[in-house]
Design goal:
Structural class: alpha+beta
CATH superfamily of the largest domain: HUPs
Strand content: 15-25%
Number of helices: 9
Distance between the termini: 52 Å
Radius of gyration: 24 Å
Length: 455
């Protein structure tokens, strides 16, 4: 039985949205299992040798609480690399119900920080979008982990803000023929935007997440202080696990947002993070990683768009000769470089069509065979707008590196500012499928500098 928003008691069917509000005021008595304390951290906390803030005495482990198979020497080495947090105040951990944010909360708690966990309630699938949006299960998983760790847990309702700042941006972009990036926008506008504002208004000094990224103090200035002012106090670097690095998704953060951010797992490889979760017997230790749209579950983008963007059919045109090959349901279902789901056969052995452009005038989808000679598929030069920098803006031509999309390697480029928030970018090698509306992240080695939007 669950309590509905109207106060009546009624059983909830699987997947139902009747229980749209999770009651956080009702205290439950959790069945807490003993939580292993890693020996290295226990010794530091007891001896007071660590410089971590807001320390309090951790309870001594009871018999059987420390798993001697957890390789304490290696755990000690890994956790010794954990990033330092602000010197004072409470930390709010964004707990999604996944293993990454669970371990982020665990590590902070084990190091003696004053930690509270919170689930950002962004979406409950009111419109019955096809797909799995397990928000209630995610809340329960996050709550169970908070109970195991021994921290307070809250649910923060950001549904209105998420619709206005992320969903609207997403739908407006696709309606205009662009390819938006909701994950990057969610980080800037929600996690380190509205959620951060809520945290500061409620007495928290930092927001921690389960991102695979590393925050570092900027190199000391000549006078010995860490940076001359707030604009250069902190740097953001790639995560230690290059296969899981998520710095790209933080490309549009500001220095002010970074100053209040913490990434407790950025120094860990994923395999070690899973091992830590299992050693601590966390409820999410073996939970699969989410692959859906930011914080709204495993909802496929095409299913999401079908509900909110009307079909707008048009011709599928072969770019090389202008021949019409078929019809499409709407340009918003396609992006530059897409091969699957175009809907027309190539009728040529070992060749497949790829999207090379969109023509708004007649709603034509332009395709070509997927090879380096395909018109419009590869670009050596591109303009970006809405530039955003983590520290000082780059105002002079400069050689940098860029990540053209998530999981792509960094590539060499020449950056030429054009005034305002626009720039011309020339790549050393042609890049494939640079879709308007997507994000180009700028790097100097492993350090993330900022990002811009493809024009």
């Amino acid at each position: 039985m669950r309590e509905r928003c109207d106060g009546k008691m009624r059983p909830c069917e699987p997947g139902s949205i009747l229980c749209a509000e999770v009651r956080t005021s009702r205290k439950r008595k959790p069945e807490r299992k003993p939580l292993p304390i890693y020996p290295c951290l226990e010794r530091q906390i007891r001896a007071g040798t660590s410089d971590s803030p807001a320390r309090h005495e951790s309870p001594r482990p009871q018999d059987g609480r420390i798993d001697q198979t957890s390789r304490p020497d290696k755990i000690s080495r890994i956790l010794s690399l954990a990033p330092r947090m602000p010197e004072k105040g409470k930390t709010l951990v964004a707990m999604s119900g996944g293993v990454d944010s669970s371990v982020a909360a665990l590590l902070l708690k084990q190091q003696g920080y004053d930690v509270v966990g919170a689930y950002m309630k962004n979406w409950i699938n009111e419109d019955q979008v096809i797909g799995h949006c397990p928000w209630m299960q995610d809340i329960e998983d996050a709550r169970r982990v908070a109970d195991q760790i021994g921290i307070e847990f809250r649910v923060v309702n950001l549904m209105k803000d998420y619709r206005e700042r992320v969903v609207k941006y997403l739908l407006d972009g696709y309606a205009r023929g662009l390819t938006p990036n909701p994950d990057i926008m969610c980080n800037r506008e929600i996690k380190f935007g509205i959620f951060r504002d809520w945290a500061k208004a409620n007495g928290f000094s930092a927001v921690a997440t389960g991102h695979y990224a590393q925050k570092r103090a900027a190199p000391r200035a000549r006078d010995g202080s860490p940076g001359s002012d707030l604009s250069s106090a902190f740097e953001l670097h790639e995560g230690a696990d290059k296969n899981k690095d998520q710095s790209y998704f933080l490309a549009l953060l500001s220095q002010e947002q970074l100053a209040d951010a913490a990434f407790p797992i950025g120094h860990l490889p994923k395999s070690e993070l899973r091992r830590i979760a299992r050693d601590a017997r966390l409820a999410t230790a073996d939970k699969k990683d989410s692959q859906g749209i930011c914080f709204i579950g495993a909802v496929k983008m095409q299913d999401f768009l079908r509900v909110y963007v009307p079909d707008s059919p048009g011709p599928i045109i072969r770019a090389s000769d202008g021949q019409e090959l078929g019809q499409h349901r709407g340009l918003h279902f396609y992006t530059l470089g897409q091969r699957k789901g175009i809907g027309v056969p190539s009728n040529t052995d070992h060749k497949a069509y790829v999207v090379v452009g969109k023509r708004a005038a007649d709603r034509a989808l332009l395709v070509s065979f997927d090879d380096p000679a395909a018109p419009g598929l590869f670009q050596r030069e591109v303009r970006v707008h809405s530039l955003s920098w983590i520290s000082e803006p780059i105002t002079e031509p400069r050689a940098l590196e860029g990540r053209v999309r998530y999981r792509d390697p960094r590539v060499a480029l020449d950056f030429t500012p054009e005034g305002g928030e626009t720039a011309l970018v020339r790549f050393s090698d042609p890049q494939r499928g640079l879709a308007s509306g997507q994000i180009l992240a700028f790097y100097q080695g492993e350090r993330l500098l900022g990002g811009g939007v493809y024009s």
